[in-house]
Amino acid sequence: MTTLIRREPSSPRSIAVRTASFVLCPVLVLSSSGAPALADQQPRPGGVIRVGEQVDVSGLHGVNVSDIAPGYRESWLVTVANERSESVTLGVRVDGLADDDNGCNDPESRVDDSCDGRGELGDHLELHLGVPDNVRMFSASLNEATSGSGQVVTVPARGEAEVVLGLTLPAATGNEVQTDSVEFVLVWRAEAVPGASPDSSEDGVELRSTVVGGGDSANLALTGARVMLLVGLAMALVAGGTLLFLVVGREREKRPTDRAADR
């Protein structure tokens, strides 16, 4: 009795599948590791704003703008308690914005020739205001937010409302913001329903950011870091494609053979 053992060579298609899996799996893992969207991020507790004859922001806490780098996202959940007998609307604006360049590091000096004056962070750091199910009812850079958000959120008489305050530094921000920091006053403005009195009142809280690229997020600080990641992925794909071409070409030169085992 003769037993035939047929050894099937790997087909070009199976080789392609294995090679593509080997190359693409790390790519997919790396590409899926980005920061979550602001709307999907759980906001931190931000404290309480009380609206009476005046707006009282002394109850705000925990709004700490630290570890900034491209890709930075943070949000805070603020409770607005309306002590008036009429509904009010709430909005914000940025006052006293100071944008400091703080000198330049090497990556910044390549794209920024004004390292001792006004910085560029205020052009890129975005302020958001909304409610838990719609964070971006207002969205603008800090420089644009000096014009104000308008009245965005309505708080019922003797009632409360939750407001989400968010800050974002887009991942595509260039190295011109390296070493930059900002400080500003975030003014909260309450306005009564038209015809009610008093018409409006406001109060502000000072906020200051840390230097871009400092702290634990320094590995994300350089825009070039993301660029180099993409370059690395591209090189991996090219190398994988070259390997695939060589292996498939070599397999095509071979002819499948049947081998018989000894009786």
Number of strands: 12
Average pLDDT reading = 77
* Rough outline: globular
Query: What percent strand?
Result: 25-35%
* Structural class by secondary-structure content: alpha+beta
Count helical runs.
4
Show unreliable segments.
1-8, 19-36, 217-231
Radius of gyration: 29 Å
Overview of this protein structure:
- The chain is of the alpha+beta class and 263 residues long.
- 22% of the residues lie in helices and 33% in strands.
- It has four helices and twelve strands.
- The strands form three sheets. It has a six-stranded mixed sheet.
- The longest helix is centred in the last third of the chain and has 31 residues, at 223-253.
- The radius of gyration is 29 Å and the shape is globular.
- Mean pLDDT is 77; it is low at 1-8, 19-36 and 217-231.
Features:
single chain, 263 residues, alpha+beta, 6-stranded mixed β-sheet, 4-stranded antiparallel β-sheet, 4 helices, disordered N terminus
Give the SSE layout.
Layout lengths: L3 E3 L5 H20 L12 E8 L3 E2 L16 E10 L5 E13 L5 H4 L11 H4 L1 E6 L2 E8 L11 E3 L4 E9 L12 E12 L7 E9 L14 H31 L4 E3 L3
